[in-house]
Each structure stands twice: as structure tokens, then as C-alpha cells.
Amino acid sequence: MSAGRRPIARPAGLLAAALLALASLLARVPGPMAHEVRPAYLALTETAPGLFDVLFKTPMVGDMRLALHVELPASAQAVSPVLSRRSDDALVQSWRVRARDGLEGQVVGVAGLDASLSDALLRVEFADGRSVVERLTPSRPKATIPARPSRLDVAATYLPLGVEHILTGVDHLLFVFGLMLLTRGNRRLVMAITAFTVAHSITLAAATLGYVHAPQRPVEAVIALSIAFVALEAAHARQGREGLGARAPWIVAFLFGLLHGFGFAGALSETGLPEGHIPIALLFFNVGVEAGQLLFVTAVLGVGAAIASTRLPIPRWAALAPPYAVGSLAMFWVFQRLSSF
Predict the structure, then answer these.
(1) pTM for the full model?
(2) Domain co-membership, 333 together with 206
(3) What is the span of the domain harbouring residue 278?
(4) What's the average model confidence in pLDDT over 182-192?
(5) CATH of residue 143
(6) Which residues pair with 90 in a beta bridge?
(7) Which of 50, 203, 275, 298 has its CA 20 to 30 A from that of 131?
(8) Name one Pfam family in it (predicted).
(9) In Å, how far from its chain's centre is CA 260?
(10) DSSP label at 3?
(11) Are residues 187 and 267 in the same domain?
């Protein structure tokens, strides 16, 4: 039976036509932002008692940067000039300060965050090996640096980081959406999503702990290629030509999930893991990723069911629209990321 005569057999297929407009919008997102919306990043590293190297990365869109500035305690005075350089999609500033009262118990923040839609990651590393990681938000642009973070503090920081990373990682979400287009039946979908979860959890842990390493830019290019592959498999399946992806989507999900784990590890490596609480931080970051992924899958299925219940007259050829849209966007990312090598 030809593609033009095949009915759309499940809510995800009905939803796909509606998401075509969204895919067209995403295609206009600049390349560096297509992978994920990165927050600002502030790192203070103690090199001697009371002496801290400051690194501040501010996101940029084109030649414009967010109007964000570091707020340090009044006892912290700059002892070197501020050096600025452009790095990919961020402005990187570095300088040195002397905090005569130290930073334990002091308030550190990012001015201007409350007037933006961005978050900021704050990392303070002390000379004795202790480290503190805080997530600053528009509603909480400042944080008090504790002497020693508790396990609960670590969990409360890394859980939302994981959720934020997956929900702002457009390419990871499109891969999951591609799996939803590719699979038929809830049982196969659960198996595919589970396989993807297990696989990226393995490489996330291995890469974050330093057991394996993969260069980030090639990884991001191949991640885009993985999206194109599942989109192609979905298109073939809807034309009656099922390949390996449609027959055993859990295999494809597991193999490419290993690759996506390196992408998650790249984001986590920028934040770092707190000394003494590495297992807790890694566990709750991964739990956050899975929670965000579950929210996305639930939302897609819910919207798809709502569209199906309206019984709108959707053309039968619309079944091919989403895999072609997702695949086209993915190939655009492939060539764009290859050109940045």
C-alpha cells in the first residue's frame, strides 16, 4: 500500500503533523544553540589562602552578550586586570581576587540574572580540595557559600541541572521523538526508551569519572546524524519498508544512547562534581535527565491523544511530514557541526 493511502495509526503520528511547524521554527535556531541553551558559568578557584582565580562565561547570541556581572563580597578585591576573550557562543572573562575573609559563609551572585531568562552555574573550589556547586536562577541570583555542602545540598543542585539539560537539549529530545515516531505499540516504546536510558547512563558515568573520553564536537555531529537515522527509519517504516530500527528499535536506541551519554557528560564536565559527593551528584544529575525525558514523552503522548480525540481531518500523507522534518533539521545540524571542526 502506498504512503498516500496509509492511515495514521497512533496519536504520535497525528501529533507529528502539528509538530512540523515547530520543526521549521527550530531550523532557524543558530547552530550553537541547537544543541542546548547553555547557562552562564562562574568559577572561583582558590590557588592560595584567600586568593581566587575567577572565570566568568556569559552566553552570547551573535555579537551580543547577556548583561550579567559577577557580584562578590565587599571583602573581595581584584588584584589583576580582567582579561576577555570570545569562545564559541560565550564571552570568557578571567581575573584574580583576594578575599581577606575567605568565601565560606559569604554571598556570591550574578547581577542582572533576575532580569533575564537564563540560569547560572556557580562553582567554588577551595585549595584543600573541597568544592561547592550552586545553581543560580532569575528568582535566586545569589547564594551563600557553605563551608561544606551536605548530601541534600548536592542532590538539590544536581537534580534540576539534569532536568534542565535534557529539556533544553533540543537534539536529545528530537532523538527521543524520533524513537516515538519509529516504534509501534506501547511495549516497544517502553523497551526503546529504557534501552536509551540504560545506554546513556553507562557512558555518562564512564565519561564523567574519566574512564573514557570522546571529543565533544565530533560527538555532537554524530548525535545529529543519529537523529537523521531514526527519522529515515521512521519514514521507511511508514512507507511499508521496515528496517532494523522499526523491527528492533531498542537496539538502535541502545547503540545511539551510548553516544548521547557523551553529550550529557560534556555538559556535566563544565559544572564539575563536588569532591566527596561525586556518586550523589552523578546519580541525581542522571535522575534529573530521566525525569525530564519522562516529562517530554508524557507531554508528547498527551498532546497526541488530545489531537486524536478531536478527530480533525488530517491528510494521510501527513504521516511522512514529521520524519522528513526531523531528518532535514538533523542533517542541517550535521553539516553545520562538521563545518565548525
Answers:
(1) 0.67
(2) yes
(3) 3-36+169-339
(4) 86
(5) 2.60.40
(6) 59, 87
(7) 203
(8) HupE_UreJ_2
(9) 10
(10) G
(11) yes
DSSP secondary structure letters along 119-170: -EEEEEE-TTS-EEEEEEBTTB-EEE--SS--HHHHHHHHHHHHHHHHHH-H
Class of residue 169 by CB neighbours under 10 A (exposed 0-12, middle 13-18, buried 19+): buried
Same domain flag for 183 and 241: yes
Return contacts of 25-32, CB within 8 angstroms, 24+ apart. 26/170, 26/329, 27/328, 27/329, 27/332, 29/170, 30/61, 30/62, 30/89, 31/333, 31/336, 31/337, 31/340, 32/88, 32/89
Spatial distance between the Cα atoms of 286 and 307, rounded to a whole number of angstroms: 32
Section 273-288 average pLDDT: 82
- Decide: helix, strand or coil at residue 116: coil
With vertex at residue 209, the alpha carbon angle to CA 206 and CA 213, rounded to the nearest 5 degrees, is 60
Instruction: Give residues with Cβ within 8 angstroms of 306, minimum separation 6.
Output: none
Which amino acid is located at 232 in the chain?
Answer: L
Residue range 106-150, pLDDT digits in tens: 999 999 988 887 788 898 988 887 888 888 988 899 999 887 777
Q: Mind listing the pLDDT tens digit for each residue in 270-280?
A: 667 776 678 88
What percent of the chain is modeled with pLDDT above 70? 86
Rg (CA), the chain: 22
Residues 209 and 175 in one domain: yes
CA distance 143 to 313: 53
Task: State pLDDT tens for residues 152-173.
Answer: 888 888 888 888 888 888 888 9
